[in-house]
Amino acid sequence: MRFDLTDEEKMIQKTARDFTIKVIEPLVEKIENENKTPRDLLKKLADVGFLALTIPAEYGGSGGSILADVLVLEEIAKAGIGMEWLVSANNSSLEAILHNGSDALKMKYIPPVCRGEQCMSVMFTEPDTGSDPALVKTKALPAGDNYLLNGQKRFISWGAWDGPALVFAKDETEKVSCFLVEKNGPGYTTDPPWKKVGGHAQESVDVHFENVQVPKVNIIGDKGKGFNILLWWVGCEKIEQAAAALGMAEAALEESIKYSKGRNLKSGPMANLQGIQWTLAEMQAKIESIRWLIYKCACLRQELAPNWSHMAALLKTIAIPTATEVTLMGMRIHAAYGYTKEYKIGRLHQSVLGGLGILTAIELNKSIVGAGLVR
Question: Residue 20: is it exposed, middle or buried by C-beta count within 10 angstroms (0-12/13-18/19+)?
């Protein structure tokens, strides 16, 4: 057991911090106003090795650890714009292909994403069914060497961007299978991005399938057992979301310290007030309480420890609410100024609340199942 980072991990962390400050932060206002992400950021993330950080070099990835992925997400999330989703969505979904796809599918679909030429998506949630696999309505019925895919998916990150997608649909046996589908082909359409409260860099759209042809060889894993792949992917995603929440909480503390030092009252800087100091100390304590659980889960996931998904499920139930509390405490320190766009704290709070907090609610049933608390 260790509680410090290696020199390599510190270097990755610094690279991610510098990338966030120099590349992402200058784009925040543009992304906030336009509610979309510049497409060239995909290539920029790939060039620094962040887009497929945990994928082996033989497929074009960086071959990094899960902890390295967490450190990168933690830093990128500090921009408070949702850009970390572009990293996490590609890492975890590519790993699903890596661990469950055939050699041919791996060689065809993984390298273009690693190079930043394409973007992954995962499609499970539907308008009427939420995240209950028993209620999935999207159908995939056999037609010769293909399946014909029909249905609708909701809140799909990067659903309008070219690239492969993991689509969960009921096959002819009425069981859920996982299909690897190429986006934007014949019969594939998307609605305009949802206008969310926060996380505007994460483009979420509804996707419609109308007789979309999918080769039968594009089933990932065993037919009819797609839910197993989904649970595995969700476990990976929980750790990544927690890392993003940690980054936003850290940024909230940094902003609050800076504000309280610069805000002068009759008695001097606000930071001299004991009540403010107590609040800042409590924010720090909450951050540290989740940091080490997140790092531990990343290491357990790296080792494929038997309890890694159990721990990831428990992690998400504490990490997201804690980060929400920390950013809210930062809002209170900023008082009325926290409600203005001139200060970063409001963006951080809305992103952790609107982007990650709501996802905690809609995935609660999957968290409970993933933790092994309900069978």
Answer: buried
